[in-house]
Amino acid sequence: MHKFICNTFSRQKLHQLCVNTALGNFVGFVAGSLVMVLTTYQAVERRAFKNLFGILPRETVVVHRLPEWLEWTLSVLVGYLVMELVRHVINSNKYLRLIGGTAQPKARDDGEQPRPTG
Known about the structure:
Layout: H1 2-8, H2 11-38, E1 40-44, E2 60-64, H3 68-91
Antiparallel strand pairs: 1-2
Helix pairs in contact: 2-3
């Protein structure tokens, strides 16, 4: 039991878990923020009574192209999907070498044992 716990919670596995989670969360956050940036824009307010018809300085106003609840929901959904896609890509063996990990050998269909890499 002690060996199982030591192998399961090894320093390398905990480090890999933290890096994978942080990377997935960061990319998901960036994707969600990008949705918010793409669905809003800033405009200068028009002449009106509250700025004395242009005599006082005009303020910039944030304009939402979608309702705010839909914008928020869309950003959360896109962020979550991108985060899970990044986790899937990281966890698949053929992409691990791109981030410095070692790919796990897959079991072969012909009954032979996989050869160790390295």
